[in-house]
Structure to design on (372 residues):
């Protein structure tokens, strides 16, 4: 297919064609399934949706190599057929952002999309083994491999994860996957106010109970454990003794998963007017900060390290913060332009970030204006 046709469709059919399109044009707004972009960017839409397929899947080695445009739903189904999963629990942002389409794995990696399990196992970038991408000069770059020990020198895999498409267009990723646990149980601790909830979550997370989720919503603390049933029963007994209060147990994926899916996808804020912020703060600061901001609603995730806030339109959450950082996930374009989507960086970090963007994309072809 010629370059002109690729530019017309906006969806190159191969990595080579993508490379030629980038060399010939720009600026571009990089898009996979179109379900995750939160920043403002300028340019012609350049989609990776045609770059699909599984290049390698070795269940025994817990390794998956897949093209960037492959649908997340297809990857999830493939892994489930081998009793495996992506450990970092990818959020579905469509309901919160009012988007259609289907998420692609390239968009997941580009945004470092991670859910409640990150508190124990890590984020998307922690499971990225390798990456192929096309930089702003139209050069194909490969970094990393199929196992952790293959990553040497500058770890571009981790750099690309969370770059929101500002450094290059991801064409393929290598991921470490994880076996599904034997079972899962969610503990519910009711009738907790915010400060009490943070204390409970911080205490339990600080113990060797291997929680894979800790959240507070609507006066209830949720604690998740995964693994072998006998081991979970022992840990639950210790948690009960430590809490010394009423605790409900929800055993099995059928009862537990809907709770964490709702928390992961911020379902509590769907179809409700207002702006949505994601904050990263010290758990010890969370309750006082929320009280100062006075949002319409709030969800505490990771024991309070991550906060989801629903606020009145145009609210400047950062004006109340003394430390931590805040991302404006959902708002009008006008509010995003006025307040900025991503937290302002220090002068030193901004110089480093600008230098990296210039090195990878010297002409500013990718997601211009996305991150400053």
């Amino acid at each position: 297919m010629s370059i002109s046709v690729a530019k017309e469709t906006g969806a190159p059919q191969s990595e080579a064609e993508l490379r030629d399109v980038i060399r010939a044009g720009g600026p571009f707004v990089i898009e996979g399934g179109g379900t995750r972009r939160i920043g403002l960017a300028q340019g012609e839409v350049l989609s990776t949706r045609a770059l699909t397929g599984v290049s390698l899947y070795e269940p025994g080695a817990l390794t998956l190599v897949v093209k960037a445009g492959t649908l997340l739903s297809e990857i999830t189904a493939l892994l489930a057929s081998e009793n495996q999963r992506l450990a970092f629990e990818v959020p579905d942002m469509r309901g919160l952002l009012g988007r259609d389409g289907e998420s692609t794995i390239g968009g997941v990696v580009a945004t470092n999309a991670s859910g409640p399990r990150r508190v124990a196992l890590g984020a998307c970038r922690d499971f990225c083994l390798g990456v192929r991408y096309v930089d702003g000069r139209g050069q194909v770059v490969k970094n990393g491999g199929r196992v952790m020990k293959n990553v040497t020198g500058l770890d571009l895999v981790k750099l690309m994860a969370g770059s929101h498409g500002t450094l290059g267009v991801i064409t393929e990723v290598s991921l470490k996957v994880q076996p599904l646990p034997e079972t899962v149980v969610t503990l519910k601790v009711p009738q907790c106010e915010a400060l009490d909830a943070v204390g409970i979550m911080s205490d339990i997370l600080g113990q060797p109970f291997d929680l894979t989720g800790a959240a507070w919503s609507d006066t209830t603390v949720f604690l998740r454990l995964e693994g072998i049933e006998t081991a979970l029963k022992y840990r639950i007994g210790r948690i009960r003794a430590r809490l010394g209060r009423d605790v409900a147990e929800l055993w099995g994926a059928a009862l537990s998963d809907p709770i964490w899916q709702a928390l992961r996808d911020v379902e509590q804020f769907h179809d409700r007017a207002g702006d949505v912020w994601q904050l990263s703060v010290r758990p010890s600061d969370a309750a006082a900060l929320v009280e100062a901001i006075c949002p319409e609603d709030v969800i505490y995730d990771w024991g309070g390290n991550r906060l989801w806030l629903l606020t009145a339109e145009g609210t400047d959450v950062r004006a109340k913060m003394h430390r931590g950082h805040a991302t404006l996930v959902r708002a009008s374009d006008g509010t995003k332009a006025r307040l900025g989507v991503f937290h302002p960086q220090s002068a030193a970090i901004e110089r480093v970030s600008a230098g990296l963007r210039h090195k990878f994309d010297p002409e500013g072809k990718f997601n211009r204006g996305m991150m400053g």
Remarks:
- The chain is about 30% helix and 25% strand.
- Residues 1-9, 148-153 have pLDDT under 50 and may be disordered.
- The two ends are 34 Å apart (CA to CA).
- Residues 144 and 152 are 7 Å apart (CA to CA).
